[in-house]
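Researcher: Good morning. I'm working through a list of sequences from a screen, and I'd like to move beyond sequence-only analysis. For each chain I'm collecting a predicted structure so we can compare shapes side by side. This is the next one on the list. No need for commentary yet; just the structure.
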Amino acid sequence: MRFDCNARGEWLVDPSELADKLGISLPRLLEEQGLGLVRTRVESGRQSDAGRSRITVQSREAVWQGVFCPKGTLISERSDND
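Model: Good morning. Structure tokens for this chain:
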């Protein structure tokens, strides 16, 4: 899985990959996004984690968190699916 930044510095991800990580179907993810039920938080690393980003995505049923290097490559991940 990769996260990429667009020209405005916003993170982009393939929604089908994200649905897989959350353990939900793509239609369900898109429906929840349309209803404003998917929350995303991006945190920048500090000190020894400088340059890395931790991205947390929460749907109604699951939470997924990934740590990415500056190039957008997934380094580690964890999930909490109901």
